[in-house]
Specification:
Membrane topology: Multi-pass membrane protein
Radius of gyration: 31 Å
Helix content: over 70%
Number of helices: 18
Mean pLDDT: 79
Shape: globular
Subcellular location: Plastid, Chloroplast membrane
Number of strands: 0
Largest sheet: none
Structural class: mainly alpha
Strand content: under 5%
Organism: Artemisia capillaris
Pfam family, one: UbiA
Keywords: Membrane, Transferase, Transmembrane, Transmembrane helix
Low-confidence stretches: 1-74, 76-85
Length: 401
């Protein structure tokens, strides 16, 4: 892509033993630098052989006999022609740049989609899908096909949501997150807009084919994701704490996860059960994590948010108060989850739910106590730790019965 730095050519170094005699027409056709390096190595080997007495060189002459300049030139021409006209060498060289370009572009897209958010999306789909499983026979080809539809469609919509956020926040990200592809210049604005728009179209198309529940789940995600970032009247919800929390609740706890669940439930069992124990538990725990993470992420971004007029909760309450508010939200949720699990009629589910949530509550408290709230890197590391707990919760939700 034009916006990416593909790489640079390596230029060979020269020395007294690597004088290459070529015709002007050969140089004008742009012989490859790597060919010259090969000749240089061959010449160095030839020179070394001259210094060894009692052996024959590759021209069949004794080392006591001088090798004529003319024959050396002829040999260099032969080697140069052999390497230059080697179709296998040329084909390999021609494939290097396109291959490197594709790999580089995919690596940039991987960071553009925000890996931790993409992993959360995958785990959310897996968790909601497993909640619909009632017996082993439910793991049918239809089940896996529906999971694949949700995964691919969600990854495309994730690309749109992350894309529109970075497109609208490019100046802000140059301060808060300068390593992001768009803010760092690794991805051009044109490429970012094109990729994001095509991703939204692909997501809608997959949802339309798969099921109404999945389609409308993607529509809801598109609406709140755009409203969160777009710098338009009545939008740019990220400027205010309540609208930021509403966005996160819709995308991670209500509209989208329930859309996944209904997509799988209706496809496999032909019905829905919105008020089941697992769904109520999932909505409660995911809501706690959504509120905590959406407020916590603004703590290390105070400087850039203040410069751009974003009234985040971290700016309003201060770093320390916001930090501990988010921690206490999750601690209360963990204790509530343990009590909820204790009421489960399934023994194995009861023990797993109670023990795991109490253990994670202890881990969270220990990590929070050792975090320096004034240290931006430490707070950012704590934020990623919250996402790790979020990921673990997706796995536990699937085991609640």
């Amino acid at each position: 892509m034009a916006s990416l730095t593909v790489g640079s050519l390596c230029k060979p170094t020269s020395n007294g033993l690597s004088i290459l005699v070529t015709s002007s027409s050969s140089l004008s056709t742009g012989a490859h630098a790597s060919n010259f390096l090969r000749i240089s190595k061959v010449e160095n080997n030839v020179s070394a052989q001259f210094q060894r007495r009692g052996y024959k060189n590759h021209f069949g002459q004794s080392l006591h006999e001088p090798l004529s300049l003319q024959k050396m030139d002829e040999e260099k021409f032969k080697l140069n022609a052999a390497s230059t006209n080697n179709p296998q060498f040329d084909a390999t060289h021609d494939l290097v740049k396109p291959t490197e370009s594709v790999i580089s572009f995919l690596e940039v897209l991987f960071r553009f989609i925000r890996p931790y958010a993409a992993v959360g999306t995958v785990l959310c789909i897996a968790s909601m899908s497993l909640l619909t499983v009632e017996k082993l026979s439910d793991f049918s080809p239809l089940f896996f096909m529906k999971v694949l539809q949700a995964l691919v469609g969600a990854m495309f919509m994730q690309m749109w949501v992350c894309g529109i956020n970075q497109i609208c926040d490019i100046e802000l990200d140059k301060i808060n997150k300068p390593s992001l592809p768009l803010a760092s210049g690794e991805l051009s604005m044109t490429t970012a807009i094109t990729v994001s728009a095509l991703s939204a179209i692909m997501s809608f198309s997959i949802g339309w084919i798969a099921s109404p529940a999945l389609f409308w789940g993607f529509v809801g995600w598109f609406v709140v994701g755009t409203a969160y970032s777009a710098n338009l009247p009545w939008l740019r919800w990220k400027r205010f704490p309540l609208t930021s929390a509403f966005y996160m609740l819709c995308s991670r706890a209500l509209v989208v996860p329930i859309g996944y669940y209904l997509h799988m439930q209706k496809s496999i069992h032909g019905g829905s059960a919105l008020l089941s124990r697992p769904i109520l538990f999932a909505v409660g725990m995911l809501s706690a994590f959504c509120i905590s993470t959406i407020f916590f992420k603004d703590i290390p971004d105070i400087e850039g948010d203040r410069m751009h007029g974003i009234k985040s909760l971290a700016i309003t309450l201060g770093e320390k108060r916001t930090f501990w508010m988010c921690i206490w939200i999750l601690e209360i949720a963990y204790v509530a989850a343990a009590f909820f699990g204790a009421t489960s009629p399934i023994t194995w589910s009861k023990y797993i739910t109670v023990i795991s949530h109490l253990a994670m509550a202890l881990a969270l408290w220990t990590r929070a106590k050792s975090t320096d709230v004034k240290n931006k890197d430490a707070v950012q590391s704590m934020y990623y730790f919250l996402w790790q707990l979020f990921f673990a919760e997706y796995g536990l939700i699937a085991l609640v019965r």
